[in-house]
Structures are given as C-alpha cells and as structure tokens.
Design goal:
The protein has 210 residues and is an alpha/beta fold. Helix content is 20%, strand content 23%. The strands form four sheets. Strands 1-4-7-10-13-15-16 form a seven-stranded mixed β-sheet, with no helix packed on it. A five-stranded parallel β-sheet has the order 2-5-8-11-14, with no helix packed on it. It has a four-stranded parallel β-sheet with strand order 3-6-9-12, with no helix packed on it. A hairpin with a 4-residue loop joins strand 15 and strand 16.
Length: 210
C-alpha cells in the first residue's frame, strides 16, 4: 500500500500532514509550526515552541520552556533536562526541597543536535551550531560552532571562510522556505497514516521531497 501511496505524491503529503496533526493534538503541542515534524515515542512539554521545517527524531525528552528555531534538527534520544530539584537548602533533603524556577532553553535556527546529546536547561545554542552525538552541553554554544564531548567543548567552526558565514546568515535572515530533505540512512522506511513501511530502493530518492 505504501509504494502505491508514495507514487501519488499529493496523497502521501496529505497523509504525512494528517499524521503530524494527530501527533500534535495528542501531545497538546499548540505552539509548533505546521511544517514541524517529529518521530515517535517522544516526551515533550506542552509549551514547546518549534519553528518552520524543524525536526525531532524518536525517543526525545524535552522539558518545559524550550524553543527551537527554523530548520533545526534534534536526532533521536536527545534530552533537554535540568532545574529539577533545589540543592541549596541546608537541612532539607533534595527530594523535599522543591523545584527552582525553570530557565528557558533556546536553540536557534539551523542547529543540529546529534544522537543522544544532553542539553542542560538554560543554555542557548547559537544559530547554525552543531552538537556532536553523546555530548553534554552545560554552557552556551556560539553560532556556527561544532562542539562535542563531556562537557561539550568547541572543536571547530562550521564554516572556514567569512564569506561562507555571511552567505549562510543571509539565507537564515530570509523568510523560511521549503527545500529537499536528506534521504533515509540504512533500512529505509516511510511514515504513512497506517504506520511505517519499507521503501523500495528505487523510491528512496523521491522520499525526501516535501
């Protein structure tokens, strides 16, 4: 059924949009853009804000007061956690100490958070930055920096030349626009209103067109 559905592109797109509307409704996500896409088995606070063409993979944990920008990607099993318990009350066990005020976490436009990364509440990830898989981010990340490790430290800049950075900034400053998504890695599947199904090899190149 999925192969025939995919050949009727408008019907595939309608099914994809219907699936996302249902997931947004089920999870109470009223502040995400209509083009936002997420995988399954996520735990996301209802006040989550997501910009155009942003993406979240599977099994992510996102607490309150988190915002992601346009084109931003969170891979699977990313966690944004912290501000769970007060630790500064002498004579009171932490389990009974209550919670501090939750700080906002801002992930700007065109950021890629790698698989299994952990972001501590309150950090700001600058536009165009990349967080390597498995990193633990406890401090702000500058724009266009590639960081990794525990705790995360800067590895290098994303762009080597100033003219490349200016060109990318100009693109991000323009109104968001639709593009072509990357193809699937490994065993390819397509999400349909009836669940996930394999994609034939010859169809992979067409899967990413939105």
């Amino acid at each position: 059924m999925s192969r025939g559905l995919r050949k009727i592109r408008w019907l595939y797109q309608a099914g994809r949009q219907l699936l996302m509307r249902w997931r947004r409704w089920r999870m109470g996500l009223a502040r995400v853009h209509a083009t936002f896409y997420m995988g399954s088995h996520n735990r996301i606070a209802r006040d989550f804000v997501a910009g155009p063409y942003s993406f979240i993979g599977d099994y992510c944990l996102i607490g309150p007061r988190v915002q992601i920008g346009a084109y931003t990607m969170l891979a699977s099993q990313v966690a944004i956690v912290g501000d769970d318990h007060r630790i500064d009350l002498p004579g009171t066990p932490m389990v009974f100490a209550g919670r501090p005020e939750r700080r906002p976490t801002i992930i700007e436009d065109d950021v890629w958070i790698g698989h299994g990364a952990i972001l501590m509440t309150g950090v700001r990830i600058g536009r165009g930055a990349i967080v390597a898989a498995g990193a633990v981010v406890a401090a702000d990340v500058p724009p266009y920096a590639l960081v990794g490790g525990v705790p995360a430290r800067k590895i290098r800049d994303r762009f080597a030349r100033e003219d490349e950075l200016r060109a990318h900034d100009a693109m991000l400053d323009a109104p968001p626009r639709r593009g072509v998504y990357s193809g699937p890695l490994g065993p390819a599947t397509v999400v349909t209103p009836w669940g996930e199904a394999p994609i034939a090899e010859e169809e992979k190149a067409h899967h990413v067109q939105q």
